[in-house]
Structures are given as structure tokens and as C-alpha cells.
Amino acid sequence: MPLTRLRPLLKVQFQRVAFSSPRQISVTTAKMAKPQYLTGDKAGIEAFIDKFDTFLFDCDGVLWSGDHLFPNVPQTIDMLREKGKQLVFVTNNSTKSRSDYKKKFDHVGITASEEEVFGSSYSAAIYISRIMKLQAPKNKVFVLGESGMEQELQSENIPYCGGTDPAFRRDMTEDDFKGIANGSGLDPDVAIVLTGLDFHPSYYKYSLGFAYVRKGAKFLATNIDSTLPNQGSLYPGAGSISAPLVSAVGKDPLSLGKPSQAMMDAVEGKFKFDRKKACMIGDRLNTDIEFGIKGGLGGTLAVLTGVSKKEDFLAEGAPVVPSAYVDQLGDLLG
């Protein structure tokens, strides 16, 4: 779809989140049936796949962990394509842009196009450019994050500062304290503070972000995942990066990644699918699976190769329960 036609659709979809959406389902009030265990159940797998026309995939913890590709993932993706399924890769990893993900898909041998990727950095960028529509010169974004965020901001022609600029990746000096206090060390055009996963956080960047928010800048986040799965282990996630600012300013950012329904509405607006015929596949209950349940999707599938374990959703009274689960994505081959 041409970008000029997509923009009004995305605007409508993002604006929908500002009101109570009739589609949004409460995770705590929805009836939680016992999830179906599909690994080794060939008939069950076929029946489950046949229910859906569209599959939304998380990436980290589902397709791979760091540079480790999980077994039979490319074959599983190919199998779903052969069945005519629509595939969308919905990721909260803000460090990579859509083009970065395309390169990774190619590198690990997964068939996917850049247009099939919808990341949290892209979600934030289109929200800023097409919904907020700030007027120059007061339209700059202060970034606490990596190059993926910068690339997506650039794709929407949004000015920014901070991020990977070496001038911000340093210790704070006495002159910095003075400059922030009297305003001479602040950029007067900054109107938004956007946080994501930042591998080089610093007291200087936090101090600048804090000062901008105190002066009225909007506080946004690509996502607020507490942890990041990588190389078979867990590390602090984007939510851990925004946490110091949350503590300092006394309020949460508007999150534009999973499980935010702003992201779901935008994904639906771009890819045009029937929610009741769509399934979310993920490894994390409080982002991926909650994203699908709140969005009113027809099903959710948890994989056990990432953050959440089966004990988390099989326990009595578990707040978030998937429709089904498998040990790993490749088990869908039957």
C-alpha cells in the first residue's frame, strides 16, 4: 500500500487507543481455559494452524536467542507460507530497524521481507510523525536508545539528538550540571523524550531526559520489557532503561510496543487482517500473549524457548494464559 494511503489509516488506528476500544479485552476478566499442549500432537497442530489466516510472531525468544537460531524455524515459516498464511513479525526489540531485521532474517535463512516487520522503534516513529505531528522547530526527539531507533526516526524525517552520538556517551561534568540547571546545556527544540533499549546509558543522558520532561517534553517509550532474552540468558530490557526516569519524574511513559493496543491497532491498520482469524506467537506472557488477548485475537501460542515458562501459565489463577503452547516453534512441523 502506498505510504500516502497508509498514513491516514495509521492515524485512525493510533487515535483509537486514546479511547476505550470495544475490541480490547481485559486479561484478568477473560475466561482462562487450560491451554492446549501441541508438541507431538500432529492432529492438534494441524487443527490449530487451520483456524488462522494470519500469524503474528515475536522474534527474540521465538525464532532465535541472540545469534542462536532455534531448530527448524526456517522450515516452519516456509510451511506456514505454503499453507497461504499471512505472516507478520512484531518485535519489541528497539535496537534494530526493519532493514536491520531483514538482514538478520537473510543471515539466518528465514524467508521474510522488510515490509513484514513491525518493530517498536517503527511504531514509535509513526506515532510521533503521524499522530503527534509536532511543528518545527519544537519537534526534536531526545533519544535514549540505539541505532534502530535513530533509523526509524530518520525514515519519518523526525529530528533527534542523543542516541548513539558519542557526545552523549560520556561521564557528566560539573559544567554539564551548570548547563542543565541554567538551560544553556539543553536543546530548546526537544519536545519528546523517547526511551528504548540503550547499551550505553549514562547519568548525563538521564539528567538531560529528566530535565526535558520536567520542562514539558512528552515521555514516550518504544517498549517497557523488563528483560531481554539473548544467548540463552536474560539481560536488562528497555523497561530497565526507562526505570530511572520513571522514578525521577514520577510517571510512566506512553509505551508504543507490545502489549500496548496502540501497536495492535497500527499493525492491523497496515496489514489488514481479521483479528478473530489471527494468532499471536510469543515467548513472554506479559507482552506477547497479553498483546494477543487484549487485542481480541482468535488465538495465542506460547513457546518455551524464551522468557516465560509453562509453570507461569499452568499455575492456578495465572493472570495470562495462552490458547496453546509448544516446547519450541519448530514443533509446529508435527
From TrEMBL:
One of its GO terms (molecular function) is metal ion binding. It comes from the Eukaryota. Its EC number is 3.1.3.41. Substrate binds at residue 258. Mg(2+) binds at residues 58, 60, 283. PANTHER family: 4-NITROPHENYLPHOSPHATASE-RELATED (PTHR19288), HALOACID DEHALOGENASE-LIKE HYDROLASE DOMAIN-CONTAINING PROTEIN 2 (PTHR19288:SF46). This is 4-nitrophenylphosphatase. It comes from Pseudocercospora musae.
